[in-house]
Amino acid sequence: MLRSRANNPNKKFDQGFLAIGAVLLGLLVVALFTHVADFISVDVMTIMLWLSVGTVMVLSRLNQGRWE
Amino acid sequence: MASPQRDIPRMSPYSRPIYKWLDRLVPVALAIFMVLVFVDYSWWMLKSPIHLLSWRSLIFFGIWIPTTLFYVIMAIKDIAQNWNGRWEFAGPQARNPLADTIGVEKVAMQRDFFRSTTGKRYDLTKNPFFRWLFHRRWYQFAAQLPNVIIFNIVIIAGLIGVVNPNRNFATVITWYVWFGVLFVLMIGVGRAWCLICPFSAQAEWVQRLGLFGRGKKLFTLGRKWPQQYSTVLISVFFFLGLTWAEEFYNVAGPGKPAFTSMLVAGIIIWDLFYALTFERRSFCHYGCPLNGVIGVVSAVAPFEGFRAKDRTLCKTCSTKECMRGSKRSYGCGWYEYPGSMSSNFYCGLTGECFKGCPYENVGLAVHAPLKEAYQPRKKRFDLALGVTLMMGALFFEILNATPQYAAFDTWLSRITGWNLVAKALDGQLSGYPNPLDYLGIILIWPLFAWAIAQIGSLLSRRRLTARELLTRYAYGWIPLFGLGILARQLPKVLTNGPTIARVISDPFGFGWNMFGTAQLPLQAKSFAPTWILWVQLGLVVLGGIASLFVTQKISHLDFQGQPGAKGIHVLMMSAVVVQMIVMMGLYYYIALVNPGHPLSPPIR
Prior knowledge:
The structure holds two protein chains of two kinds.
Chain A: H1 11-34, H2 37-62
Helix pairs in contact in A: 1-2
Chain B: H1 17-47, H2 55-81, H3 102-109, E1 121-123, H4 128-135, H5 139-160, H6 169-189, H7 192-196, H8 198-208, H9 233-248, H10 257-277, H11 282-286, H12 291-297, E2 303-308, H13 311-315, H14 321-324, E3 325-326, E4 329-330, H15 352-356, E5 362-367, H16 371-374, H17 381-399, H18 403-416, H19 418-425, H20 435-459, H21 466-473, H22 478-496, H23 500-503, H24 531-559, H25 565-593
Antiparallel strand pairs in B: 1-5, 2-5, 3-4
Helix pairs in contact in B: 1-2, 1-5, 2-5, 5-6, 5-8, 5-10, 6-22, 8-10, 9-17, 17-20, 17-21, 17-22, 20-21, 20-25, 22-24, 24-25
């Protein structure tokens, strides 16, 4: 069962995570407009890390962090 | 049951003045080495026929001067602070008498959990040299420094060097040498790469504001990573993501060396962000794309990592310097507690616990290979899931060399419009691999593992859950994955690796000849002997046999006497055999139909 928002002990972490996602998305838009290939590649790779953490956050909330 | 008293010397065998001076001079020599490399490269750079104010020079000096200055200042600080014998062998404290009563009882209660300590093993720290070495504060720094220098040159070479990947240090050292050596290190020693990792080294030096000394204050916010999100799957997913990005940007060659720079610089920046925000080595745990691969493949290695020699003593230790740190050591950066370690998965071989233990009760033992894969009683579901996902990625890496895959990928990208998105991300790229087929192929393996686990559960008449069967038997896939992925790297490493002799003399392709080897007649692919395929197939067979051995052991240790155990055992062994045969068939098929591919040496 998903935890309610009010009881989430990782609220600050989640908020920070979303803020970083917004920054990365913003940087990607800037990079696409400026056509700097290296900038785009670093941002895409960083988004991969962000997505990995995000996927685990979703999975962990679904299984209540039971990985053992 | 009293534990045997160990014969540990009270005095260091290296207490003569020469060793004290050696102890002081090694860090000094390392600092001088760092400066010499800087001076040598700067001299060649200034001698090059490029303008000093060109963008290449600015990037070179913009990276080299600040980093070298930082490291030299930190080294001088550490040397000055530690000059007066702080690194001397302290000698063990007297054994806690409660260890033989309370400790023994506690350990006896957890005997099954600690079964990984059984069997023949040789403790390296019985040897005075290793004991002396692991006590040195500069032990890890000495291992890290050469790599830090090499990978800083990689970043610079990728940014300012020539575009030809076979003449650029960044591509040659990273993908033709490092990626092969990395897997040999994992299989041979375990987390040896983590010991010498230049990425975490630099982030940790900034976090500790020192290179090897034991500082009092840390330069970090020191936040804790949420317990709920503490899983190796972050690392596995990131590994899959970066593998896709590596294929998409063709980073590993013959792509642009600048992408290799971006990748290496990216890892250092991410690591630095984690180090400044979270405590200890959080990036290594919850960010490093190689953490999952290295941890998993380390199970094949015959090293069990730094671990308590006598757990009864740990049960009565109230200070826990191994975890918390002491005057001469930091707490374990990997959050490990040697007193309850049951596998080498998270031992980064930093040796901090060895330095910190007041009872000299931490050792580094060597035992039979594969033991770490089947012995631990405690097996993790996330790790098992990670093994199946990484196995999927390995099969993708082999499948993508087939012409059938290329045709399918092109068709899929056309009908889904992915090639247009790829053009927006980089105008020169074709869009390979399409993320849909990439993820689709990878997901076949976890689904396959889940399906056979469900069949196994049916065989046990649902007494054993599919989750438990998957969790335990996926460990049996580890050797096949480890040796299969090494086989995947071999052709690229063996055919192109020798070009390293040229690029170390001319790392940027500027026409330098630093060591007199720049003109050697070594061309990429000139070392493509036909026997590479047979070595690949041999490694897969070896991995398959090792996997069968581990699977057999898991059946014996974890499921003996359980309902349906024999049927489940046959099922799981068959799953390993099928994967081994498919992997061998694919390597052979690629060599047959696609002899020009870097993965496939021609068959004659």
